[in-house]
Amino acid sequence: MPPRRTHRLIDLCEIASGPSGQQLEGLAANWEGVPVITPPDLTTEHKIDTRSIKRVSLGTAAGLDRFRLRKGDLVYVRQGTLGRRALVGPAEATWLFGAACLRIRPTTEAILPEYLLHYLGHPLVHDWITSQANRSQAVETLPSQTLATAPIFVPPLERQRTVAGALNEIDTQIEAHRQMITKREAFRLGLLTDLLSDAFAEPGMP
Residue 48: what are its φ and ψ, rounded to 5°? Predict the structure, then answer.
């Protein structure tokens, strides 16, 4: 009998909710302390944007060791824009995550974090997860116990590596095209602005 390929997320990963706002006392945008990843810091490209990241003091962070991140963890938004996520790399290891996020930490070598990152974003999987969210509150919320039951298809590791690698390459190309489009749009606007500046400089123009 072939091994079972579909599992619950909880069978493969530890899922933890972030510390409460009260525990993150003094959370603020400053240049000192330990960074805390919150939903606004996660981009649609599954990256962690640190430009506006907030921090807590070393003293506050010392009591929150169980909320520390490690390389290979996933940070997943559980309130508001559900499903936005990012993979924790070496630069973010030892950081913290906020109350509106979940930490997904693989507990078995059978699942690659990179594969899981993309898998959770598949429209069918994303729709299933968000359909289970609690909409009775003012802000749409996904309980950790609900995400724990999400079905995860686990192909062989080599297949996971192939799929994750291909998707990473596609994402890189998409991001490069987006940056090119942004630059071209700025150039286009600049040309039009120069033209209008010349036009308004002519006598008789308002």
Answer: -105, 115
List, for residues 7-25, the tens digit of each pLDDT value. Answer: 999 999 999 999 988 899 8
Query: Residue 186: its pLDDT value, please?
Result: 77
Is the Cα dihedral 157, 163, 169, 171 positive or negative? negative
Separation of alpha carbons 105 and 156, rounded Å? 19
Question: Cα dihedral sign for 143, 109, 39, 26?
Answer: positive
Pick from 13, 10, 6: which is nearest to 148 by CA? 10
CB-based contacts of 64-67 (< 8 A; 24+ apart in sequence): 64/19, 64/23, 64/24, 64/96, 66/16, 67/16, 67/18, 67/19, 67/96, 67/97, 67/103
CA distances (Å), 122 to each of 19, 75, 139, 155, 195, in order?
28, 16, 23, 15, 45
Task: Give backbone dihedrals phi and psi of 37, rounded to 5 degrees, phi first.
Answer: -80, 125
Tell me the pLDDT of the chain averaged across its residues.
88
CB of 35 closer than 8 Å to CB of 56: no
H or E segment at 8? strand 6-8
Total-model pTM: 0.82
Amino acid identity of 120?
A: L
Q: How far out from the chain centre does Cα 106 lie?
A: 16
With tokens 């972030």, the residue in question is 18
Tokens standing for 54?
């907030």
Q: How far apart are CA 33 and CA 54, in angstroms?
A: 9
Q: Give the pLDDT score at 44.
A: 86
